[in-house]
Specification:
The protein has ten helices and no strands. It is an all-alpha fold and 198 residues long. It has two domains: 49 residues, Orthogonal Bundle (Arc Repressor Mutant, subunit A), CATH 1.10.10; 130 residues, Tetracycline Repressor, domain 2, CATH 1.10.357.10. Helix 2 crosses helix 3, helix 5 crosses helix 6 and helix 7 crosses helix 8.
Length: 198
């Protein structure tokens, strides 16, 4: 966690933006669980509103930045989960499960990532979680078309499970996440037995 002084003069180039993002994320994770206004953000960090506007000219710019940071953190969680697998199908299953568990652990940030504003232009930098999905599905598929279908199908299933659990439509249960995101049973076209997917 970034620690900053409330004196604007102590900020070095780039550190104020980082501090603003950290405070924005903290507000999302806090008791109120909502995105702060730019003025509220300036109060939380201890700088003038003008200083905030230099980095985020409007609320949409802040929302985009928070969503991008969320995508980065989601990707980190998925890479961490995938590092525990020795084969590609298992890595694929574990990244889907990590997606749902990230949503449950960070519900406000997750909803902001996918419901606020226009979607960010897809790039590895802007959406590293999507880049990981594309990489895995391209390795699991025989053609580009099959990879695109598999990526959309897998994302839709994981996102649907996450939203159903967040909305209380199905119980948020680790064992259920594992059963629902069993790669071999979801995608039998890959020709793998259920024993290959944990």
């Amino acid at each position: 966690m970034l620690t900053v002084s409330t004196s604007p003069e102590t900020y070095h180039h780039g550190s104020l933006r980082d501090a603003l993002l950290q405070e924005g994320l903290a507000a999302l994770e806090g008791e109120d669980g909502k995105e702060p206004s730019l003025r509220e953000l300036s109060r939380r960090v201890g700088v003038s509103p003008t200083a905030v506007y230099r980095h985020f000219p409007d609320k949409q710019a802040l929302t985009r930045a928070l969503a991008t940071e969320g995508a980065k953190r989601l990707s980190e969680a998925q890479h961490e989960a995938a590092s525990h697998a020795n084969d590609l199908p298992t890595r694929f299953a574990l990244t889907g499960r990590a997606y749902v568990r990230f949503a449950l652990a960070h519900p406000v940030l997750f909803r902001l990532m996918y419901t606020q504003g226009a979607p960010a232009e897809h790039s590895e930098q802007a959406d590293p979680a999507r880049a990981l999905l594309d990489d895995l599905t391209s390795q699991l598929s025989r053609t580009k078309e099959e990879a695109e279908r598999l990526a959309l199908q897998a994302w839709s299933i994981a996102h649907g499970i996450a939203m159903l659990m967040l909305d209380g439509r199905i119980r948020a249960d680790d064992a259920l996440i594992d059963r629902l995101l069993d790669t071999a049973s979801l995608f039998p076209v890959q020709g793998r037995s259920s024993e290959e997917s944990p």
